[in-house]
Amino acid sequence: MENIGNKAKKHWFREFIEIIVVAFLLAFVIKVFIFEFYKIPSGSMKPTLQEGDRVVVVKFIYGARMPFINVRIPGFREPKAGDIVVFKAPPPNDPVAFIKRFIAGPGDTVEIKDGKLIVNGKEVNDPPAFRRVTYYNRGDYGIEGKPITVPNDSYFVLGDNSANSKDSRYWGFVPKNSLIGKAVLLIWPLNRMQTITDK
Hints:
By secondary structure, the chain is α+β, with helices and mostly antiparallel strands. The protein has a single domain, classed as Umud Fragment, subunit A (Ribbon), CATH 2.10.109. Helix content is 21%, strand content 30%. Strands 1, 2, 5, 6, 11, 12, 13 and 14 form an eight-stranded antiparallel beta sheet that branches. The protein has a four-stranded antiparallel beta sheet with strand order 9-8-7-10, with no helix packed on it. The protein starts with a helix and ends with a strand. 28% of the residues are buried.
């Protein structure tokens, strides 16, 4: 009887360990390759996102980064104008994650003129968020009358709160490999839960 009891205990313990390991691996895969939750650290994306908001960031859309080897697996598409993206912040802010709006990609020319955003010589007003924002000339990369061309494997991003946002106007371009994912859902606070894909 004692032998049977010991075997049953060992069997139960082994099953428990297996469940824990599988749960850990599943959580790891989801966090690394599928989605992750992020807390908005500042007011740089007001009014779209407020400080303290929690958002779901999907990673596989642009291609998730493999841990430890810093290689990106292929995604479904590149970021497009208006996407709200999360990325690894530039020095000296790293390893903090920033969240901004994607403006332009490699080869695009960006200029801020009379409060408007000009990309490749045309005013950007779609999605509607671009029509709501008055863009200010700030920093070395946002000087009036000085168009900036985005280099290869890089992105230009701006905060919706243009008067109070440290973004590509100040520190330049986001390397493609620093991209983490696309913010798609505001989940907290509950009274503001909504998709943010086209905001």
